[in-house]
Amino acid sequence: MRRTLMATLLALVVVACSNDDPVQPQNQASERPVIRDQYFYYYQDSPIYFDTAIDRLAIKFHEGISEERIDRFLDARGWKVYGFEPSHEIWMVLVENALDVVKRVSWPNPSLEYIGPVLESGLCDGLQLHMTPTNEISVRGDVTDAEVAEHLKGAGVIRTREDRDRTILEMPWDATRTIDLANWLAVHPATEYATPNFIQQFCR
C-alpha cells in the first residue's frame, strides 16, 4: 500500500470523488484554510522566516478512510506522495501550485480533514529544509495568566497537556491560525517562549 511504501519516520521538532457526506471532526477548522506565501515564528526572540513551498502541501484525511479511497483521491488529482508522518497521519504531497489548490478545494471536504502549507528554507549543506506545521504549540510560561487564558479560549484551543517544563496546546488543524497564536504567545510577557511544533524533512 502507498502508506506503507511512503511512510518514513520524520523528525518531529518540538478531492476520486466520493458520495460520502462531509464530516467535520472536532479538530477540523470550520473555515476554509488560508495559506500565505511566507510565514515566520520566533526563535530566541528573533523571527525566523520561511517561504511557502509552491509545489508542496500537507494533507490529513478523515479518520477511517480506506487506503483504496486515499489512493483514488490522490491519483484523480495527480498529487504525488513524497512523505508520510505517522504520529499525526500527515501526508506530504507534490502539487502544481499549492496556493491555487487550497483556494479551489471544497470545504468542509468529504475526504480531507486538513490541507496546509509546507514551509522551506534555504539550502544547508546542499539540502533543502522543509518544515510542515502540525496543530500543536509548545509553550513555556504561565498559560493560566488571565489575558493568555482568554486569548487561548478565543483562538479555539482544543486541549492542553503538560510535557516536562512545557505546555503543549492542541489547536484545530489550521496552520496559519496555529502559527499566528504561537507568535502572539512568544511576545507575551507571561511566557518565556512559544513555538509551533513542526515536522522536519531534508530533501535534495
Give the SSE map:
Elements lengths: L1 H5 L4 E3 L24 E6 L2 E16 L5 H11 L2 E6 L4 E5 L3 H7 L7 E13 L2 E15 L4 H10 L3 E5 L2 E5 L4 H12 L4 E13 L1
Antiparallel strand pairs: 1-10, 2-3, 3-5, 3-6, 4-5, 6-7, 7-9, 7-10, 8-9
Outline type: globular
Total helices: the number is 5
What is the number of independent domains? 2
Task: Indicate the radius of gyration in whole angstroms.
Answer: 17 Å
Order of helices and strands: HEEEHEEHEEHEEHE
Helix-strand category = alpha+beta
Largest sheet composition: 10 strands, antiparallel
Question: What's the CATH first level of the largest domain?
Answer: Alpha Beta
Mean pLDDT, to the nearest integer, reads: 86
Strand element count: 10
Low-confidence stretches: 4-26
- The fraction of residues assigned to DSSP E strands is 35-45%
The CATH homologous superfamily of the largest domain is called Peptidase S8 propeptide/proteinase inhibitor I9
CATH topology of the largest domain: Alpha-Beta Plaits
Oligomerization state: single chain
CATH architectural designation of the largest domain: 2-Layer Sandwich
Distance between the termini: 25 Å
Helix content: 10-25%
